[in-house]
């Protein structure tokens, strides 16, 4: 198919430049880490090998539990229609933009030594629950990733053509036959990908390990990198650990393609699946229990943060509000930079043929292979001979957060740009509309919704980040997540609860403002 006659030359050039910058941030920082690493891995010791082993084991356990628990929850959502179902499905996306440290506070309020569960077990003569260590790390990862795995598995269930279920009912299939012929093939296709996505996320979850891990039994690779920087300033050891982290992440990503199973079903007639199989009382009770427990697991920690944080909001020290302002500035800067990179890249991907477009898209998604801490390590190594990295803590944090948000931004913008050009591109060509006029009059009005989502997602993710800032910043330039971590470490739990509530409100508020703004101004 021939390309349009009036390409956006400037935007395409900017897209190529943005892709080059993203590639430099991803590969350049990894190259800096590789250059700094000592030959032969002399800097690694027994503790580092234990950190590598624990990282893999906790990621495997977290991914396995998240995907296995997601199956009954997704099945219940697929075969039930009830008031509030849409709200519950929306709630399943909330943990993705939830500040990690706020969720950890909520989990401590429920599962900690003085939490709700420990108080409930006390009359039975059972000791308090200890959430710190491997158990807490896995529990927090399941909290964050069970909703994601449920969404992925739910899409698999809804993709089974309704005609297959009607045929199964006509043939008198019972639950075992339906599972063997319909559900098991779908799960074989969906579960490996969901497992590896969760596994990748758990490999690079620094804030969870920082707050709930630590110690010889619960140190991850990223936590070991942080300790090598902050406490030992051993750049060689940190560099080797960063390279290992990148290698493990890339291996897991390649495995996701290697074990993919082809789809087991042909096309259907796009009819909704109103009910999967017979609807007995036992099945209704089972589905109700699954949905109720999942909702309780997700909502209760956030409710506890809200209840414990409200009384202390008025008494927060000025340093917390100063940190909140710094976090807002970083979040807004990160959101603006994300859009400045993603929008021209999305236009260039649509404009360029074949390999060139795929190369730009690959450059935009490559940042996910290098975790924020690895990217921060590389930037620290590059900046250290030139300036004090602590003075650049906030700009560097905003830049790394923008790079990490870029793959999600492209996921939202690339299809929207393609659809706008497909529906209105010929008309714009016939009117001689190019350059800024084409962007302002044809593209931007039709991209307000994905642009709003992109800005909101990037701002929310940056607002709650406790990764790069922990490497660079000092207490005088702390962001709100780092300030909150300091309050928790000092056992000022009342102030920490109030600061956590403030962080939660700001993160969700930024996402809502941008996303709502994009949807409100979008064309009907």
TrEMBL record:
Entry's transmembrane regions: 52-74, 86-111, 131-154, 190-212, 238-261, 289-307, 327-348, 360-386, 392-414, 450-473, 493-514
Domain ABC transmembrane type-1, first and last residues per copy: 52-256, 324-514
Protein name per the record: Thiamine/thiamine pyrophosphate ABC transporter permease ThiP
Membrane topology classification: Multi-pass membrane protein
Localization annotation: Cell membrane
Keywords per UniProt: Cell membrane, Membrane, Transmembrane, Transmembrane helix, Transport
Phylogenetic lineage: Bacteria, Pseudomonadati, Pseudomonadota, Alphaproteobacteria, Rhodobacterales
InterPro entries xref list: MetI-like (IPR000515), MetI-like_sf (IPR035906)
Chief localisation class: membrane
Statement: the UniProt record of this protein carries the keyword Metal-binding: no
PANTHER family: MOLYBDENUM TRANSPORT SYSTEM PERMEASE PROTEIN MODB (PTHR30183), THIAMINE TRANSPORT SYSTEM PERMEASE PROTEIN THIP (PTHR30183:SF9)
């Amino acid at each position: 198919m021939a390309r349009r006659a009036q390409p956006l030359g400037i935007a395409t050039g900017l897209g190529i430049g943005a892709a080059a910058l993203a590639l430099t941030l991803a590969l350049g920082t990894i190259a800096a880490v590789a250059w700094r690493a000592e030959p032969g891995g002399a800097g690694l010791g027994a503790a580092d090998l234990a950190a590598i082993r624990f990282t893999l084991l906790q990621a495997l356990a977290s991914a396995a539990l998240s995907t296995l628990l997601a199956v009954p929850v997704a099945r219940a959502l697929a075969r039930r229609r009830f008031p509030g179902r849409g709200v519950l499905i929306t709630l399943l996306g909330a943990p993705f933009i939830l500040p990690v440290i706020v969720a950890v506070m909520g989990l401590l309020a429920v599962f900690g030594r003085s939490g709700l569960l420990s108080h409930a077990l006390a009359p039975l003569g059972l000791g308090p629950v200890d959430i710190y260590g491997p158990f807490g790390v896995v529990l927090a990862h399941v909290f964050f990733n069970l909703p994601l795995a449920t969404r992925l598995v739910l899409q698999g269930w809804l993709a089974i053509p309704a005609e297959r279920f009607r045929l199964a009912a006509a043939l008198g299939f019972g639950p075992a036959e339906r599972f063997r012929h319909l559900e098991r093939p779908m799960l074989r296709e969906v579960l490996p990908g969901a497992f590896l996505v969760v596994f990748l996320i758990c490999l690079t979850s620094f804030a969870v390990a920082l707050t709930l891990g630590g110690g010889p039994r619960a140190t991850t690779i990223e936590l070991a990198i942080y300790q090598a920087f902050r406490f030992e300033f051993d750049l060689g050891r940190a560099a080797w650990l960063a390279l290992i982290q990148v290698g493990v992440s890339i291996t897991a990503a390649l495995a996701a393609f290697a074990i993919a199973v082809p789809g087991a079903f042909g096309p259907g007639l796009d009819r909704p699946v109103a009910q999967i199989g017979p609807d007995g009382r036992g099945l209704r009770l089972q589905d109700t229990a699954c949905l109720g427990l999942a909702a309780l697991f997700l909502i209760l920690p956030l409710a506890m943060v809200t209840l414990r944080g409200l009384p202390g909001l008025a008494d927060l020290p000025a340093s917390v509000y100063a940190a909140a302002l710094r976090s807002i500035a970083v979040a807004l800067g990160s959101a603006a930079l994300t859009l400045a990179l993603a929008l021209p890249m999305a236009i260039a991907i649509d404009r360029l043929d074949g390999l060139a477009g795929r190369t730009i898209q690959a450059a935009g998604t490559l940042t996910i292979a290098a975790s924020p801490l690895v990217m921060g390590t590389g930037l620290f190594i590059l900046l250290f001979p030139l300036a004090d990295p602590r003075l650049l803590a906030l700009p560097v944090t905003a830049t790394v957060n923008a790079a990490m948000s870029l793959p999600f931004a492209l996921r939202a913008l690339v299809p929207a740009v393609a659809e706008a050009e497909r529906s209105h591109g010929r008309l714009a060509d016939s009117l001689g509309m190019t350059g800024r006029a084409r962007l302002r009059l044809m593209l931007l009005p039709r991209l307000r919704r994905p642009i709003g989502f992109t800005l909101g997602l990037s701002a929310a993710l940056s607002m709650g980040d406790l990764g790069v800032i922990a490497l660079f910043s000092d207490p005088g330039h702390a962001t709100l997540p780092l300030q909150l971590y300091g309050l928790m470490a000092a056992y000022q739990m009342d102030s920490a609860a109030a600061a956590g509530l403030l962080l939660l409100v700001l993160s969700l508020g930024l996402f809502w403002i941008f996303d709502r703004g994009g949807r409100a101004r979008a064309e009907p």
